[in-house]
Amino acid sequence: MRMKEIIMDQIKPGSLDFKGHQGDSDIGRLLATFRGEKTDRVPNFEILIEDKHVEKLLGRYAGNTLALGGDPAKGIEESEGSRPMHAKDYVELCQKIGQDVIVVEALWTPFKKWKNGKLVLAGDRSIKTRKDFESLVMPNSEDIETKMRYLREYREAVKGTRIGVSILLGALFQTAYEFLFNMADFMLLVYDDRDFVEDILDISTSYWVEFSRAAICEGIDFLFLADDIAYKNGLFVRPEDFKPLWLPRLKRILEPILNARVPVMFHSDGKLDAIMDDLIDAGINCLNPMDPYSVDYRDYKIRYGRRIALSGNIDIEYPLVRGTPQDVRKDVLAHMETLKPGGGWVAGSSHSIVNYIPHENFIAMINAIHEYGKY
How far apart (Å, rounded) are the C-alpha atoms in residues 237 and 196? Predict the structure, then answer.
């Protein structure tokens, strides 16, 4: 079915016919897509659906899909004192939109500091020296157990459904440059005091290795590892300097996951061409979100589509924010025509479903994925 042959439906703002989506969630579909296999349809996946969209879909306030309050994707301070969305709400949301998995957020390495007599997450970019860093309270097993309790809650909630459970973790590089240090200061340290940078990353890596082992013991269907390492023109750090710094630590985190034969989705914004082969060789099964300002999805399908599953790329700015529901449907169909053949695409946005996306456009995207994604 070609785009010019499609007669676009009239979609009323806020409306969604759930009949085709209710009961459609199936983690087996998503895992088969990670393996590059064709399934009944292209899966849909969003790591973050913000609270206004969730409220419209469920008819009640339930937070966003990362947290009941705050938004951990926006920073460490937003994680302070928050808990994940209640599992029953997340399950209901997935059943309504046909998403195959619920995800526990554990994104940032939990370095802490004393502030006004309280121990809080360190996120004010105040670290300048090794002495400053050594004054922090390092992450520990108690931090891991807090997240494991939520993972157990999520595992219990999906019993009797075909919905899977994942956990989002691993931002060892981004935690340092975005929350501990001013970004420019940290990037200079990579060249001026590499030993210091390696010590910081080693602490994060050891924490995430222990975390990964615990997650395997609790039971996850796949690991969602995220660490923004690039911008629109390439890696933040020259490949010849970055790869020896980051790749061995990534492989340490992945080792218990791969030994357990659990698949891995990896997220980074930006242009990843310089490290794509290394990511695939390290055992990554799916790349998310194919940043549309850096990645031509047609090119990635040709170059990498036989070696790794691809996820996302439907641009938030256009069509999701500035387009109409009909524009959204056209864009989803264009993606389907390239990425659907042969399997290996997980449909979704280029980052997340933020509140300033018109709700009718989100609904149009979900409906179009279900309609055009069928094999």
Answer: 16
